[in-house]
Amino acid sequence: MAETLVLKVGGSLKQDSLEAVVQAVESALGSGKSICVVHGGGPRITAALEKHQIQLPFVDGQRMTTPAAMEIVEQVLKDINREIVQQLLEAGLPAVAVPVEMGVLQASPVPGLERTARVGGVDTSVLKQWTGDGRVPVIAPVAKGSTGESYNVNADIAAGAIAGAWQAERAVFLTDVAGIYKDFERGELLTYAAVDDLKKLLASGSFTAGMIPKVGAVLEAIARGVHHAFVVDGRNRKAVTWAVSSDLNDSGGELPLGTRISLHGRDKDEFADDAV
Ligand SMILES: Nc1ncnc2c1ncn2[C@@H]1O[C@H](COP(=O)(O)OP(=O)(O)OP(=O)(O)O)[C@@H](O)[C@H]1O
Ligand SMILES: [Mg+2]
Fold first, then answer.
1. Rounded to an integer, what distance in angstroms lies between the CA atom of residue 274 and that of residue 270?
2. In this structure, CATH architecture of domain 4-274
3. Contact predicate 270/262, CB 8 Å
């Protein structure tokens, strides 16, 4: 069976994200993988909410969403979804939009955050069917509640949950920084990290803002059986190719161009050198 990959495209990549997603999907399909794309929308959602004079607080990197704000969030995400699908189709790649109404993501509402939810369940049937047909599903991070209402889900958490439920071999997070930094201020980048190292860093406060749910999504994906997660800068073409196409069985040789996370890091013994 083809190796499966979930690609998360960060909303903070702005205009570069469309080129990055085309490159990543080309590279994945070119190396015989099945791929689905999950996208965020952070900065554009913020801009749209500002235009409507709505300000929503962030709690641990997660935006609180009122029902009125959710309508705007959903519209922005639908626009971004359409743009990504269009860009892929124009590049000759067989993308297909996954309508929110299909309910791939089921909401588990977060108390106190109104229409912000975590992922309660994932219906992977449509993903399996479409990727099996050689297509590339493109998914917005909107989850459905028990009566069909829409919830805002952090895109990283959505991608991690989808990767876990789909039992993807690899989850790749494209963002606007080189990877996960042990110390963001001092610029200390993690290259090969083990799950335990990330847990320690998370507990010690190394991550702020959007990196908190991103690391949470990586941990969740690996806990559910995803073999490897990558966090790389989507503007760096070499890093995108490394994350999407590097040989996972080959632990030596390849130059790390971002952060690769697996259960035990690069290699249990070798990793001891740069242990956290
Ligand atoms: N330790 C850290 N290492 C790397 N980035 C960090 C760290 N701590 C905080 N950050 C911040 O996390 C940001 C990435 O998360 P962010 O949620 O903003 O982007 P994204 O997930 O790519 O986009 P979106 O949320 O719109 O989908 C970086 O731009 C950086 O400012
Ligand atoms: Mg984010």
1. 8
2. 3-Layer(aba) Sandwich (3.40)
3. no
CA distance 31 to 137: 17
How many CA atoms, within 13 angstroms, populate the side-chain half-sphere of residue 36? 33
Ligand 1 atom closest to residue 40's alpha carbon, by position in its atom list? 27
Structure confidence by residue, pLDDT tens digits, 39-88: 999 889 989 999 999 988 887 767 789 999 999 999 999 999 999 999 99
The pair of three-digit structure tokens given for residue 27, joined into one six-digit string: 């590279």
Mutate to test the pocket of ligand 1, among 211, 215, 233 (most ligand atoms within 8 A of CB): 211
- Show the tokens assigned to 33: 């993988």
Q: Which residues line ligand 1 (CB under 6 A)?
A: 10-12, 40-42, 155-156, 175-177, 180-181, 184, 206-211, 214
What pLDDT is attached to residue 266? 74
Bridge partners of residue 119, in order along the sequence: 107
Q: For residue 226, which of 139, 181, 147, 165 has the smallest C-alpha distance?
A: 165
Per-residue model confidence as pLDDT tens digits over 247-268: 877 655 667 899 999 998 875 4
Helix (H, G, I), strand (E, B) or coil at 102: helix
Q: Which pair of tokens denotes residue 182?
A: 């042990």
CA distances from 20 to 24, 240, 242 (A): 6, 7, 13
